[in-house]
Every structure is written in C-alpha cells, then in structure tokens.
TrEMBL record:
SUPFAM superfamilies: GroES-like, NAD(P)-binding Rossmann-fold domains. PROSITE patterns: ADH_ZINC (PS00059). PANTHER family: L-THREONINE 3-DEHYDROGENASE (PTHR43401:SF2). GO terms for molecular function: oxidoreductase activity; zinc ion binding. It comes from Pieris macdunnoughi. This is Alcohol dehydrogenase-like N-terminal domain-containing protein. Keywords: Metal-binding, Oxidoreductase, Zinc. The keyword Oxidoreductase applies.
Length: 239
C-alpha cells in the first residue's frame, strides 16, 4: 500500500508505494481504510525532532484520521463498510489515571503507545486499530468532518476545564490555526460575543473572517499596544 513514512533515526519523511499492508492479528482488530488524515502541529514537532516518537523502525505518522472499515477480527462488533473515526490513544484500564478517565497520562498506554506516533498511523492507506479505539460515525457525520474529531477533542477538553465561562466574558484567543478556529466556532456556538482574536498571519485572519463570527481580529503588535485586560485568555499558538 501507499504511505508517507517517517524515519525517527534520521528525521526524514519518505513516500513508500510498497509499505506492508496491515493484517488482522487479534480477534478484536479493525483494519480501517483511511479516507481523511490530518497533519497536526505535533507531527511537525516530531519531524523536527522536538517531540518523542518511535525510532525502532520507519512508520507512517498521522493520529488524526477517519475512514471505512475494511476488515475485522472474528469477535469484532464492527462490520465491513461502516464509517468510523479512531481515537489514537489507548488505555491500560488498570492504573489510577485510566480509572479516573485520564488515560492520556497512562504510563504504559496513552501517549506512550499512540497510533501515528509509536504505531503505524493514518498517513497510510490502511491502519490496524484495536476495536476499543474505533468509533462508529452517526449517519449525519461524514468521514471528512470526522477527520477533525481528534483536534476538536482537545478543544472540548480545554473548554470543559475552563468552564463555566459566562456569556459576556471578555475573551482573548491567541493564535488562529486549526485549534484556534475550533475554539472560535465553539465560543460562537456557546453565545460568546466579546471575543478578540490575535494572529500574525494574514491568511489565517482571512480564514477567520469567512467564519462570520463578528469577532474582533487584530495582529500581535496591535494587541501589545492596546494593553487591554481580558477575563479569559486562550493560548492556541502551539509554542
């Protein structure tokens, strides 16, 4: 199959037309035919050697992806042809972190065994996934939309941690990349009007304008000169 493969030893990407096709090795395995896969800021940090990833062998990155069930293990609840999205993080379900619903902190699973970082990911045509990391999509959600599930889960988690944010709160969002834009759409959905967006990239500001939220858009130099106070500041710069 075709894949974009990352070599962690030399920090190099390579297009491989003959990467090995995944096979069912467990009765609960699900092989997903990838339809949409994102490029996350974390992927860029991995490629630059700034974020830990597998160095045992070259493998496809990509932890934000959706697709169609291609093949399943004998005991899987999924059926070939179903639309699905994948949670790249697993859980051991035994440690205190996992029992508390914080499996991203799990010392044996979580970020330590993430699909697309430590295991073959969505920058390939097919990916083998454990059944408990695969989620069936509702009829009204397309695989294209579902490609944003993983980044939006980060925004949803942040919103839950910051909540409650009363309507009328003066909010500053710094950075208007994909995470910043997802924050803006969430704030708009929740009825927030007093929101300022600071972004240095004009192209990104133009994208925000197309969202038609009515939010105030400024550049960092204007932000620094205004010296205004905000009730809530949301950092989406990724620095």
């Amino acid at each position: 199959m075709k894949a974009v493969v990352f070599d962690g030893k030399c920090l190099a990407l390579k297009y491989d037309e003959n990467y090995p096709m995944p096979e069912i090795t467990n009765d609960y395995d699900v092989i997903v035919k990838v339809e949409y896969s994102g490029v996350c800021g974390t992927d860029l940090h991995i490629i630059q050697g700034e974020f830990p990833a597998s160095k045992e062998r070259p493998l496809p990155l990509g932890h934000e992806f959706s697709g169609i069930v291609h093949e399943v293990g004998k005991k899987s609840i999924f059926k070939v042809g179903q639309k699905v999205v994948v949670d790249p993080n697993s859980a051991c379900n035994l440690c205190n972190f996992c029992r508390d619903g914080k499996y991203q902190y799990c010392l044996t699973a979580g970020i330590n065994s993430t699909i697309g970082i430590w295991k073959d990911g969505g920058w390939a045509q097919y990916v083998r996934c454990p059944q408990d990391q695969v989620y069936l999509l509702p009829d009204g959600i397309t695989t294209e939309q579902a490609g944003l599930c993983e980044p939006y889960s980060c925004v949803s988690h942040g919103f839950d941690r910051a909540a409650p944010i009363p309507v009328g709160t003066k909010i500053l969002v710094v950075g208007a990349g994909i995470i910043g834009n997802l924050w803006l759409t969430t704030l708009h959905l929740q009825g927030h009007k007093d929101v300022t967006v600071s972004e240095m990239n004009k192209t990104r500001l133009d994208i925000v304008k197309k969202l038609e939220t009515g939010y105030r858009l400024i550049t960092p130099d204007v932000l620094a000169s205004e010296k205004l106070l905000y009730d809530v500041i949301i950092d989406c710069t990724g620095i």
